[in-house]
Structure formats: C-alpha cells, structure tokens
C-alpha cells in the first residue's frame, strides 16, 4: 500500500440549534504520490468538510470527527495536538480555498505572508525567505515580483489572487495540496489558466493534489481519479476515463447527464436530477439517493448499499451492483 494520504471511515458531525448534522458519514479515500484525486459533488455533500477534516480546520466549537482515521505517510493526524498539526499544515499538506480575500490576511503584504510560512517551517533567514517568495511569485506567473511583494491582496485581480494563494500553499513544497473549489469564482478563461498552473506545479514538484469541485469539466481536465460524493458519502470511485465512459451509480449518471456538451443541440434542456439531497439531521436508513433514484428498489429504502468493487479501481455503492440484492431475504442482507 503506497498511499501517501489515507482516510478511512471518516465521520464528522456538526451540532446546531436544530440538532446534530452528520455531514460526513463514513468517507474513505486514498491519495497516491503525484496523483490528482478529484472529489466531486453538489454543495453540502461533505466534500469541503472532508478537506477541512484532513487539515484539522473544522470549527472547534461545534464540529467533531466522531469516528475514523486520517493517515499521512503512515502518521495518524486525528490524534496530533494542535501544535503538531500546525507543523503539518503548510509544510506537509496545504490547502487552497475559493476566496483568497477571506482565506488570506488582507492587512498584511503579500511578501510578509509568503515569507511567514518559510521562516516558520524551514527556518530560513528573512533574506532567504524573501528570495524564495520572489521565486514563488515568478513561478505562479506574477510579473514584477519585487514590487508586488510590497502590495496587498486588494491590489490584485481575482485570478492573480488565486495565483498568490497557490504560491503561499506551495512555498514550503508540501507533499499534498488540497484545492477547495479554487476556480469556482473565476471566469472560464482565467479558470483554464489556473488549472494549467496546477498542472505545471504538479509536474515540477510531484505534489499530490486533491481537487474539490462541483464542476465535472474541471474533473475531466485535471483528475487522475474521481470520488463522487453524495449526502456525506462516497458513492462511486474510479479512474477519470472509466468514470466518464462507464458511470455506474445513478447519481453519477445524473451528474454526467446534466453537463452541457457540444454534441447536444443548442438550447437542449439539460437533465438536471429532480429532487433534493436528504436532510442530514436524520439521514435515511437505506440508500441516501433512493428518493431521487429512477432505479430504486425496495431494498434501497431499507438498507444502505455497501461499496462493491467492479473492474480494477472502480467501486460503487449501489444495490444495482450487489448480487445479494437479487436474493435478498425479507429481513435484509445476511452480511451487511
Ligand atoms: Fe438507486 Fe438503489 Fe442504487 Fe441507491 S442503491 S442508487 S436507490 S438503485
Ligand atoms: Mg464547499
């Protein structure tokens, strides 16, 4: 097993006035060296919560990892102290968010923020750190880096701010980069440039990347493997080509049917998936997608489907793929 980052059976809950929300319900994932894993799903499916759990950046007052394990290089992250975790963040695993203005400090100069990380993690002198910051800005495509170091975030365009956030995440050469909807707020041209930058960064640094997105176009253009999430669970996982060619979960098929394609007649209506995801205050006891699934069977409402291994790296959690569904006794599957 050569996974660099392994998440096993992760459960995360939020306590709210309305009760406990089970935002992540048994997520497992593997990230190998140098690969790009996409996590795709609608907003509220638990993909950002999964990312924040890995970084241990969940809100402390109302959220909790209730079960599961997160290992980086064999080291269990869920048990690290906050101080140990601060050493992991930035130098081993770094995260890039959608909105630099809220993720970074708008009152500090770009240079101060870039240098802070390398001074702390790599114990460089200020002069060395400054040199490194200039190189990094150049690397992410920012001209006049010497001048730009002295500026603040608001002096940059949206695309440039994302470049700066990527520079900050990458400056200590972390082995894992997590990008949470990094291009969602950008227009299509800038989005393509930022995705190019991620590819270039990976080629140069061999970093592994987790790309979190609701956009299958982004998935197609950058991912090696894809995890599809629905209602706090991974419902399908496959290499990217396999997923697009041979989607097996009805939710994945619905997502693929809802992307605009060139071979569709212009103005043709997209097949959005009817219905809404279930309430995670009280998740359904069977398959979470049952209420929206055109193939739902009786067993689907009664018991959650297990993850079934198809060819190669392809797994799917759906009763349609589970031979036991055909021979199910009325009291349910024997081994579930
Ligand atoms: Fe549909 Fe049943 Fe598969 Fe769920 S388990 S996706 S309800 S067929
Ligand atoms: Mg999100």
UniProtKB/TrEMBL annotation:
ATP-binding listed as a keyword: yes
Top-level taxon of origin: Bacteria
ABC transporter domain mapped to chain residues: 5-256
Species for this entry: Paenibacillus cineris
Location relative to the cell: Cell membrane
Name assigned to this protein: Dipeptide transport ATP-binding protein DppD
Name of encoding gene: dppD
Swiss-Prot/TrEMBL keywords: ATP-binding, Cell membrane, Membrane, Nucleotide-binding, Transport
Keyword ATP-binding attributed: yes
Coiled-coil segments on the chain, per record: none
InterPro entries, alphabetized: AAA+_ATPase (IPR003593), ABC_Ni/Peptide_Import (IPR050388), ABC_transporter-like_ATP-bd (IPR003439), ABC_transporter-like_CS (IPR017871), Oligopep_ABC_C (IPR013563), P-loop_NTPase (IPR027417)
Any one Gene Ontology molecular-function term assigned to this protein's record: ATP binding
Annotated membrane topology: Peripheral membrane protein
Annotated family: Belongs to the ABC transporter superfamily.
């Amino acid at each position: 097993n050569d996974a660099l980052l392994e998440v096993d059976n992760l459960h995360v809950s939020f306590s709210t006035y309305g009760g406990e929300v089970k935002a992540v319900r048994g997520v497992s994932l593997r990230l190998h060296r140098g690969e790009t894993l996409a996590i795709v799903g609608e907003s509220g499916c638990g993909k950002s919560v999964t990312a924040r759990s890995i970084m241990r950046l969940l809100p402390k007052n109302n959220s909790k990892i209730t079960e599961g394990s997160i290992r980086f290089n064999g080291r269990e992250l869920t048990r690290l102290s906050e101080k140990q975790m601060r050493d992991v963040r930035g130098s081993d695993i770094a995260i890039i968010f959608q909105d630099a203005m809220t993720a970074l400090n708008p009152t500090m100069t770009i240079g101060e923020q870039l240098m802070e990380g390398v001074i702390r993690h790599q114990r460089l002198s200020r002069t060395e750190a400054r040199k490194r910051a200039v190189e990094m800005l150049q690397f992410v495509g920012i001209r006049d880096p010497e001048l730009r170091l002295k500026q603040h975030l608001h002096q940059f365009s949206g695309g440039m701010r994302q470049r700066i956030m990527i520079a900050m995440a990458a400056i200590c050469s972390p082995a894992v980069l997590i990008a949470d909807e990094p291009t969602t707020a950008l227009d299509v041209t800038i989005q393509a440039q930022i995705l190019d930058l991620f590819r270039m960064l990976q080629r140069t640094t061999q970093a592994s990347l987790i790309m979190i997105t609701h956009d299958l176009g982004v998935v197609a253009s950058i991912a090696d493997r894809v995890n599809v999430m629905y209602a706090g669970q991974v419902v399908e996982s496959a290499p990217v080509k396999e997923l697009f060619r041979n989607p097996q979960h009805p939710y994945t098929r619905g997502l693929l049917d809802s992307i605009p394609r060139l071979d569709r007649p212009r103005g043709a209506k997209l097949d959005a998936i009817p219905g809404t995801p279930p309430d995670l205050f009280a998740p359904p006891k069977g398959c979470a997608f049952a209420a929206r699934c055109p193939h739902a069977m009786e067993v689907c409402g009664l018991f959650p489907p297990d993850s079934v291994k198809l060819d190669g790296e392809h797994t799917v959690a759906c009763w349609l793929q589970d031979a036991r569904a055909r021979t199910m006794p009325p009291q349910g599957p024997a081994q579930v």
